[in-house]
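Limitations
The structure tokens in this dataset are predictions for the assembled complex, not deposited experimental models. Users should treat interface geometry with appropriate caution, especially where small molecules or nucleic acid strands are included. An illustrative entry is reproduced here so readers can see what is and is not provided.
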Amino acid sequence: MGRYALLILPSANRVYADASTSLTVAELEAFGRSVLGGRIAGAAAATIGGVPYVTFTADRIDARDAALLANLSSAYALFRIEDDLLRPVALHPLDRFDDDLITIQKYQGKTNEQFTKLLLNVTLLSSAFARDMLERKFSVIDPLCGRGTTLNQALMYGFDAAGLDLDQKDFEAYSAFIQTWLKRKRVKHHAEHGPVRRDRRVIARRLQVSLAAAKQDYKAGLTQRLDVVNADTARALEFFRPATFDLLVADMPYGVQHGSRTAAGKLARSPLGLLADAAPAWCALLRSGGALGLAWNTLLARRDEAAGVLAGAGLKVMDSGPYLAFAHRVDQAIMRDILVARKR
Ligand SMILES: C[S@@+](CC[C@H](N)C(=O)[O-])C[C@H]1O[C@@H](n2cnc3c(N)ncnc32)[C@H](O)[C@@H]1O
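Predicted assembly:
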């Protein structure tokens, strides 16, 4: 049995404060359960040479296991513990682009990028397609995408990304950012940005981009798609076809920076009304075996209430083991948790 030590990204302590270790342990367990055949055991905090790590045991970590674990949202480095020495395990994450794709944009109300990666990972690991994490071009939708933190992480992984947001400023800011970034990085792409018309009326604005990290892939048509709509999330099925997404990931309004707009146009602090309005459409967007992952402020809505809405939409809510270990305090007004459910 081998012992391993995972060094957590220094930024994780800034983002999560005291919770960085417990969140890493929970995410590691989610990887262990779904893609490492339950071979990871005893994940716990440890201090080695005065530096905090998360240690665990596994009968072996082969190259594929390491390639999967390289994508842990807080992974900085992984070592195998041999006697009292640390032997590095090479980590090659999926990352396709420079990481400033995810870090450059700074704005109030941005979902922290490390947390966004955690939420996307845990959602992916809960889908029926988890074992294909390294090969599948997942299609991901964030139906409350703001200025695109989830979309950028999905692109980073080589996936297709779609999004909806009601806020026109957020839509235009993201649209400008991504097009400038793609040009500046000389990423081969084609973008279309403009109004969506129905019966001669403008019903939304939309940005559609096809891109590829490598020029030869673009030429061969091996592209990633980015498709963002400025509209109410409850209208998602007017813009996206049902059963076409593997993963739906959203950070619900916290009632601090953003309120939740319900179908009736009301601005509410609790995200439950928005969730109830949108859940049928969100569920319809997922293909069978797809998974949905939400983050929200538990000071505004209880976990069992949010879970009840998802179950009511016909989803199977994950409610055991690591899934109950992601709650953490963000600040005085926000206690954040995640809820993951799978479409049968
Ligand atoms: C917590 S923020 C998401 C931030 C995003 N993850 C990011 O990093 O930019 C929640 C988002 O939900 C959006 N929103 C609230 N009600 C909505 C609705 N009914 N339809 C679409 N978007 C909505 C807000 O405009 C806000 O951008």
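Some entries come with short summary sentences. For this one: The first strand starts at residue 2 and ends at 8.
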